[in-house]
Amino acid sequence: MDDLYRDYILDHYKRPRNFGELEPHDLEAHEHNPLCGDELGVHIRVADERIADIRFHGHGCAISQASASIASEELMGMELIRVGALGADWMLELLGIPVSAARRKCALLNLKVVRRAVTGDHAWPT
Amino acid sequence: MPPVAETTLGVKGDFPIFTRRFDGHELIYLDSASTSQKPAVVIEAVAEHLRSHNANIHRGVYPLAQEADAAYDGARERVAAFVGAGEQATIFTKNVTEAINLVAYAWGRANVGPGQAVLITQMEHHANIVPWQVLCRERGAQLRYLEVDERGELSLQALERELARGDVALVAFAHVSNVLGTINPVAAMAARVRAAGAVSLVDGAQAVPHMPVDVEAIGADFYAWTGHKALGPTGVGVLHGRREILEAMEPFLTGGDMIASVDFQSATWNELPAKFEAGTPMIAEAVGLGAAVCYLSEVGMERVRAHERELTAHMLEALAQVPQLRVVGPPEAERRGGLASFTIEGIHAHDIAELTARRGVCIRAGHHCAQPLMRCLGVAATARASVGVYSEPEDIDALVDALSAARQVFELR
């Protein structure tokens, strides 16, 4: 089996969880990966200072789509204050595959967009 | 008589980088449209200049400085001769981007205003879009686009219709598209632009390294290209301009070397081409480019073109065998430069490039700095394979094998 394109990565890529739009929503953000023009947006519904529901939308490579899908399952129900503190390591560990420097932004695009929706922070996660 | 089309020119051995191995794989370099690899003669010319002839130019009276002068001026002579341009009207820039910005700032700011338009095409690289966007916004002019048809080509009739509107000040277009591969009829386009009293600029980045180019015969007012795609070093590009237009223009960048004299409050400008080369230029890089065009001339540009046309035909045929693969741009190799951009249904271009790289096959993936064109094509990204003088049919075969392997990883059938 391929180190990067593991079964679960391809599964999340081909059948992404929590993809689509969420109307109405409380928080949203949209970002693109300047390297390749891939786009990812997020809609979040908030209840009790937590993510009550989340949907990603956009298009991208297997790494960026699978990352968003996998992250969405973890983010569901998470306290907003915790979301704002999530760093790159959280996402990369969750992915569980060796992501090269060239593909790092593919993996982190979803966290960037979620953090932007929640905290307004435009920076890439570190 | 046109040269016999050779599928290999047998020059790979001239390029030291091909001795490298990646994870045991040979380097299969199919990204020459991004940048070319460099022959030993170019690497050695740069090193030899730095080792034995280095001094600043146009300043020193000592012999070493005269050698540096001769090397830099000699490089310009070679580069101008390579494309049939005049030396005085051949300006060294950092790259094509800087060459186009030079025209947009130094010519555009003085000649484009409200009520006028700049016309470009939907197939341009960002380098030939953004400088015009900024110019038009600043000067209150309109930016319009010539459409690319479903074959990936431009229409001369559409160009004529646009010119007939009477407001077009400048038309800028690629000689060869870096995404579609389309070879545009640049001489016919430049003639129509000139007849309409407008100024033309051709982005020749993807043409000069791959086919015979005669700047005089094309007849555009400006023609820009870059060294690093033409076997030369990075950091040196070229702008050829019509001499009377360059003479009438104010400078772009100002400072040392571009002046005739400087007073406390004012300065006068140097002659062409120095007027447009402020500051110490890229001397060693220009020398390297001089060596590169000599190398290309020795191989012969007619041969280079015939070889790349043959390889491109082979590539189009081989790619057509890959299921779910779609190539964008003209279907005939005859009408294309040496590249093919493609998508595979079910695999994103980045994943295609990642997986081909496992086998040493280097291709580009993404929007290729042509996002407006990608929108016209209705795709977010494509993979692109592009050839150079050193490319061989085996490189294409390795690509196709790697694509089959990528399809297997993604479980496509």
Q: Helix and strand layout, with pairings?
A:
The complex is a heterodimer of chains A (126) and B (413).
Chain A: H1 7-14, E1 27-32, E2 39-47, E3 50-59, H2 62-75, H3 80-83, H4 88-95, H5 104-119
Antiparallel strand pairs in A: 1-2, 2-3
Helix pairs in contact in A: 1-2, 2-5
Chain B: E1 21-22, E2 25-26, E3 28-29, H1 40-52, H2 63-82, E4 90-93, H3 96-111, E5 117-121, H4 130-139, E6 142-146, H5 156-164, E7 168-174, H6 186-195, E8 199-203, H7 215-218, E9 222-226, E10 237-241, H8 243-248, E11 259-262, E12 267-269, H9 283-299, H10 301-320, E13 325-328, E14 339-344, H11 349-357, E15 361-362, E16 364-366, H12 371-377, E17 382-386, H13 393-409
Helix pairs in contact in B: 1-9, 2-9, 3-4, 5-6, 10-13, 11-13
Descriptive notes:
- The complex is a heterodimer of chains A (126) and B (413).
- By secondary structure, chain A is α+β, with helices and mostly antiparallel strands.
- Chain A has a single domain, classed as Alpha-Beta Complex (Sufe protein. Chain: A), CATH 3.90.1010.
- Chain A is built from five helices and three strands.
- In chain A, strands 1-2-3 form a three-stranded antiparallel β-sheet, with helices on one face.
- In chain A, a hairpin with a 6-residue loop joins β1 and β2.
- In chain A, α1 packs across α2 and α2 packs parallel to α5.
- The model of chain A has no long low-confidence stretch (mean pLDDT 94).
- Chain B is α/β, with parallel strands linked by helices.
- Chain B folds into two domains: 129 residues, Aspartate Aminotransferase, domain 1, CATH 3.90.1150; 255 residues, Type I PLP-dependent aspartate aminotransferase-like (Major domain) (Aspartate Aminotransferase, domain 2, 3-Layer(aba) Sandwich), CATH 3.40.640.
- Chain B is 38% helix and 17% strand.
- Chain B has 13 helices and 17 strands.
- In chain B, strands 4-10-9-8-7-5-6 form a seven-stranded mixed β-sheet, with helices on both faces. Chain B has a four-stranded antiparallel β-sheet with strand order 13-14-17-16, with helices on one face. In chain B, strands 1-2 form a two-stranded antiparallel ribbon.
- In chain B, α4 links the parallel β5 and β6.
- The longest helix of chain B has 20 residues.
- Chain B is globular and about 75 Å long.
- Chain B starts with 20 loop residues before the first strand and ends with a helix.
- The mean pLDDT of chain B is 96.
